[in-house]
């Protein structure tokens, strides 16, 4: 069930550029953040916690969460086309794990082509209080939670959860399982922990991640921080989009060398086959709920700072159902986990990981995103990420093991992927 304060209502408040900059700075320090080019969603405080009992496996739990959002009524007058209440969350990789979405007391939404807006949620008295604080300046919840002036960490120690040889052995065991015919692919993850001499600062991490990976979606949800390139699903009314990634090549920074590496990636039968399996799985999962789905025949190259990926942008239109469309949370439940983060066949790969990976992925490679009262929203795969608590940061990276995988090359790929967060966290 959903825990929320009785008689919640909401109101919107326009934000000027100066206030938006201050709110963004404070959200980067200690708020909840999902930020990409063209969209910024910032959250402060907690007006309601919406429980997802059974994670993504219980449709009634997902429906109750959306119903709870829709039950938050306008403080005055009928609903307007302005932003409506939304909830943010980062779900565990295990789709069966209980989860929680948070409806912030103050949400800031800044989308390209639209004026930035603050949305406040609470009891009628609390909404009036927050609106008054917005008129007078920034609410106390924002200005009183900054990280202060403590110095950033400047000493770091890296510790791999297991020796390299252990990972190579696990790749070898996975290859034997694949050779037996029981699996086609399994995604193995590595974990590395960074220990610092002082607490990591969320604002520093997010600022560097945005600078290093501007084409990714940066996020910070209750200690889960990262910059992910992979869109799991976006819903805007009937329109949907997903951008799966699979297939990786290292980038050197030399334009000619990178073009050659990308050409090799595009020509690789192994990489293209692995990529197509993910694309086909997403198309198959969405097929029952769409009236149209456009799936390109050929992948494109997505260039990141130190790697390039094969990428396919899948777009479509949902089929109407009882006067509405499936919510973005229902679509997440249809898609997660994809072969990109689990393997194929997915159920058998998950069984294999549960028995033999011996890593608690927590929220790594789980869905991270938001849903609003219309059922719209967008969710990403929580990769290129870390779980940050005080002076420690647990980093993860995964690689897809298929029949002709080379263990040493797969280890090297995890090291490349770990660099995405290490470059932001470790500052000598």
Task: Name a few traits of the molecule.
428 residues, alpha+beta, Anthranilate synthase, 2 domains, 13-stranded mixed sheet, 7-stranded antiparallel sheet, 11 helices, 26 strands, globular
Can you summarize this structure?
The chain folds into 2 domains: 3-143, no CATH class; 156-425, Anthranilate synthase (4-Layer Sandwich), CATH 3.60.120.
Number of separate domains: 2
State the CATH class of the largest domain.
Alpha Beta
Residue-averaged pLDDT: 92
Determine the N-to-C terminus distance: 47 Å
Relative strand content:
25-35%
Q: What is the overall shape?
A: globular
> Which superfamily, in CATH terms, is the homologous superfamily of the largest domain?
Anthranilate synthase
Number of helices: 11
Biggest pleated sheet? 13 strands, mixed
The total strand number stands at: 26
Q: What CATH architecture label of the largest domain applies? A: 4-Layer Sandwich
Oligomer: single chain
CA radius of gyration? 22 Å
Structural class: alpha+beta
């Amino acid at each position: 069930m959903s825990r929320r304060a009785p008689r919640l209502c909401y109101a919107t408040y326009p934000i000027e550029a100066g206030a938006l900059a201050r709110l963004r700075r404070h959200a980067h320090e200690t708020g909840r953040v999902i930020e990409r080019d063209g969209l910024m969603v910032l959250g402060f405080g907690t007006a309601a916690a919406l429980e997802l009992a059974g994670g993504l496996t219980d449709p009634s739990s997902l429906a109750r969460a959306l119903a709870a959002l829709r039950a938050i009524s306008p403080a005055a007058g009928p609903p307007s086309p302005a932003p409506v209440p939304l909830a943010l969350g980062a779900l565990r990789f295990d789709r069966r794990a209980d989860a929680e979405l948070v409806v912030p007391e103050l949400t800031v939404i800044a989308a390209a082509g639209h004026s930035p807006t603050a949305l406040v949620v609470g009891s009628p008295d609390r909404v009036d209080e927050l609106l008054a604080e917005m008129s007078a300046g920034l609410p106390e919840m924002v200005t009183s939670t900054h990280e202060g002036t403590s110095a950033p960490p400047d000493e770091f120690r890296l510790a791999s959860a297991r020796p390299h040889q252990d990972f190579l052995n696990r790749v070898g065991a996975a290859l034997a399982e694949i050779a037996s015919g029981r699996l086609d692919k399994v995604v193995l993850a590595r974990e590395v922990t960074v220990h610092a001499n002082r607490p990591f600062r969320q604002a520093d991490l997010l600022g560097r991640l945005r600078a290093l990976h501007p084409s990714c979606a940066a996020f910070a949800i209750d200690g889960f921080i990262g910059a992910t390139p992979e869109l799991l699903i976006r819903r805007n009314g009937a329109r949907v989009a997903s951008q799966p990634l699979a297939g990786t090549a290292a980038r050197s920074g030399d334009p000619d060398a990178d073009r050659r590496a990308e050409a090799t990636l595009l020509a690789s039968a192994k990489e293209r086959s692995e990529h197509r399996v993910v694309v086909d799985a997403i198309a198959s999962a969405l097929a029952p709920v769409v009236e149209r789905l456009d799936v390109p025949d050929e992948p494109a190259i997505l260039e990141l700072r130190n790697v390039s990926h094969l990428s396919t942008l899948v777009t479509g239109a949902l089929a109407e159902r009882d006067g509405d469309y499936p919510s973005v949370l229902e679509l997440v439940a249809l898609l997660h986990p994809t072969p990109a983060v689990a393997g194929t066949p997915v159920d058998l790969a998950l069984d294999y990981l549960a028995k033999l990976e011996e890593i608690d992925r927590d929220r790594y490679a789980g869905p991270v995103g938001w849903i609003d009262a219309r059922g719209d929203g967008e969710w990403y795969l929580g990769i290129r990420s870390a779980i940050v608590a005080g002076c420690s940061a647990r980093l993860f990276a995964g690689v897809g093991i298929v029949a002709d995988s080379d263990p040493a090359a797969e280890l090297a790929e995890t090291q490349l992927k770990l660099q995405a967060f290490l470059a932001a966290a470790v500052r000598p």
